[in-house]
Amino acid sequence: MDTLPDTTAETVGDSAYRRIRTDLIFGKLTPGQKLKLERMSGAYGTSISTLRETLNRLCSEGFVVAEGQRGFEVAPISATEFQEIAELRELLESHMIEKSFAAGDLDWEAHIVSAHHKLAAMERLLLSGERSDAESWKQCDFQFHRALVAACGSKVLLDAHAAVYDRYLRYQMIAVVFRGEMAASEHRELKELALKRDAKGANKVLHTHIHDCVAHALRNSDWLKPVAAVKDARSEPRRKAKAG
């Protein structure tokens, strides 16, 4: 006899997925950390079988690595991957800005102004030395960048951008990236350029915004410094050869 779908189990599974994914993105589960099924089952309130399905799903998204019979661990990070993710984010976002700036209406403009107002308020708190609510800050940051591209007219692009942004955000949170007034100034420029429908100018600012964020992380993050140092050391002979 057919049975009704177990909607409770589905709800528990979805809840565990969202919580684990959030903890991965915001660095509560750290790169290389072993994910013990028994311990996580209790912490996230789900069965081991559901948890295994959730972790396999997160493997496909690049947040978790399956170690065969040894189980699962949090995906490692590297300077190279961060740069590649940043390039992909810029490629998508630049294209979406062009489409969105051309199609946006007054409601779109109002959404951008509102999103920037919230982000600017969070940035003022950070500039004052308050660093306790990093998650809210980055959520406001995402909502602002999302508002810029919201009128692009493509759900496929929006979904792809959200997925890439989450992987980019994971690096930002692990590296604790906040570039101070420079980042806040770039956000103000992006808002003004959006209201002027200047997609070319906005994409120049976006390039600087993303590139400088990555450079700042590579210089200052304890997680990424060793990798960045190796890369710089390998590049030094080539720089000297060119100089000679």
TrEMBL record:
Native species: Bradyrhizobium barranii
Keyword Transcription regulation: yes
InterPro entries reported in the protein's UniProt record: GntR_C, TF_FadR/GntR_C, Tscrpt_reg_HTH_GntR, WH-like_DNA-bd_sf, WH_DNA-bd_sf
Keyword Endoplasmic reticulum: no
This protein's UniProt keywords: DNA-binding, Transcription, Transcription regulation
Domain HTH gntR-type: 10-77
A Pfam family the protein falls into: GntR
Protein name: GntR family transcriptional regulator
SMART domains: FCD, HTH_GNTR
Gene3D superfamilies for the chain: GntR ligand-binding domain-like, Winged helix-like DNA-binding domain superfamily/Winged helix DNA-binding domain
